[in-house]
Amino acid sequence: MKCLSCSAEMKTKRENVLYKDSGLPHVTLRNVEVSRCPQCGEEELAIPKIEALHKAIAQALIRKPFRLDAAEIRYLRKYLGWSGADFADHMGTTRETVSRWENGTVPIGPQADRLLRLMVATKAPVSDYSLDILKGISTEKSSHTLRLGLTVERGDWHAEAA
Question: Which residues contact residue 12 at a Cβ distance below 8 angstroms, ignoring those fewer than 6 apart?
């Protein structure tokens, strides 16, 4: 492989490297191919199945037995593909609060932490449910009771507003 900067032949070997592109200071990729240019020092990582890598990181984070920290919240928001504004809408909070969580100014609350983990765990929602419904939930107390009618069809239950 030739260096993109100086066209010299790069040397490749397997090693453990800190995955800086994740934005997480504690993620190490083990036994990955690293190519270095002996002339200019340029470095390239060969990361196979990068989407699966990002999913594995997200799954490990949501299984963490302690509250998520600022870098982990930012990583999970980006993993979900949301801007700060989208994330705030889905979490039912303000952009400023999201910014404070991600900058470490204010820790994420336990309920918001659990909601974020749940959203990551259900990234591939069932076909007739979208997490976008969370954006439309009112924060005001409601006196409305949802009446449901449930019908079984071919062994599956289906709910309808009655």
Answer: 1, 33, 34, 35, 36
pLDDT tens by residue, 39-69? 999 999 888 888 888 889 999 999 999 999 9
Under a CB-based contact definition with an 8 Å cutoff, are residues 95 and 85 in contact? yes
The count of residues in the chain is 162
pTM of the model: 0.74
Q: What are the sequence ranges of the domains in the chain?
A: 1-48, 49-124
CA distances from 34 to 13, 46, 50, 51, 135 (A): 6, 6, 15, 19, 43
CATH placement of domain 49-124? 1.10.260.40
The answer to whether residues 43 and 36 touch, using CB atoms and an 8 Å cutoff, is yes
Distance CA 67, CA 64 (A): 8
